[in-house]
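If you are new to this repository, start here. Below is one unmodified record pulled from the training split, so you can see the exact layout before writing a loader.
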Amino acid sequence: MSDATSLKPVRAYAAVTAAYWAFMLSDGALRMLVLLHFNGLGFTPVQLAYLFLLYELAGIVTNLAAGWLAARFGLAATLYAGLGIQIGALVTLAQLDPAWSVTASVVFVMAVQGASGVAKDLAKMSSKSAVKVLAPAADGGLFRWVAMLTGSKNAVKGLGFFLGAALLALAGFQAAIWGMAAVLAAILLAVALFLPTGLPGRMKGADTWSGWRSRDPRVNRLSLARLFLFGARDVWFVVGIPIYFQSVLSDGTAEGRREAFFLVGGFMALWIILYGAVQAAAPRILGGAHRPEPAVTRDAIRWAGRLVPIPFALTLAVLVAGEPAHWLTGLLVPGLLAFGYVFAINSSVHSYLILAFGHADRITRDVGFYYMANAAGRLIGTLLSGVSYQLGGLSLCLATAGVMAAASWWTVRRIA
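And here is the target side for that same chain:
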């Protein structure tokens, strides 16, 4: 990675961040478009979960392959590939025919979402790995830079959630898809023109495909904790809460559905934006970016434990309410925002530790393995979100989230 010295780190970091922002804006918008559009068509919670399963499954495979591809071809190549595949997925999704059967629609959207999942994890792995190389080593630079990238990315993705819901209400499904594809194509062209040459990422030829699993047990344990952490979020976030809120907020009329789209999209956007803001501020919240690695590891254990009681408390509130109610929504919103605050600290600390633990000579492989576990957690959470909501409603979604948060806490304790 000696070519890193030929780069201006700040310029390269800015270019990588801009590309990642553009991608995550489209990713968040696409998720809300698909979820709300097909919920409006009468899909069941399990069918809605199916739409995202291949997206998450693709992430498991892609994160392993992405590390190897970046090692072979460099981080710029995998970043461009992620943006290009996302454009292709959007163009393909615009071909969806409303006359198709439910089964055909589910299979088609699953396939397109699978391609989008490949694109997302190529872009994510490229951006996060670049930070390891570009960030200044002194004065907590790595913690600050990864927190800024991760936090800003989630704020942008939150805007995408609201954008997707707003576009669906104002422009309709197909027009929204075509518009996003056009904007993303322009961003790809701009990034290709302005990204500095020589973005690092290539590794020694001896590092072959067989080295997909980390040799450091801390990386493997952190990856398992990450799996449970994101499963704990997605088990209520993907299907349960959006469908629950829509059932409470919509009166069943066309105008009521449009208003519910804005409200649900607004809450999801607010949650993600605040989550991103807390991630970006995590170094300050924890006492400064200069904290040594063992202290940050202790933070990871402490904050993992703080997440566990929140979903169980919300489960109790839902059980006491007995059925969907507006007063319960007023309790769930601050409760889920509290979950987001603690979750964001956990996520930010994990994102720092994987780069701190990862070895510079195989960083794309360690990051790829870590985000493979992240995708596996999202896959499990997505499936459980639809199944648990259909079997036991929101209370079962939240209780399952509590169990997975507890598993994350138990696993991360073994890192120290």
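Two things worth knowing about this chain: Residues 1-7, 203-207 have pLDDT under 50 and may be disordered. The chain has one domain: 2-198+216-412.
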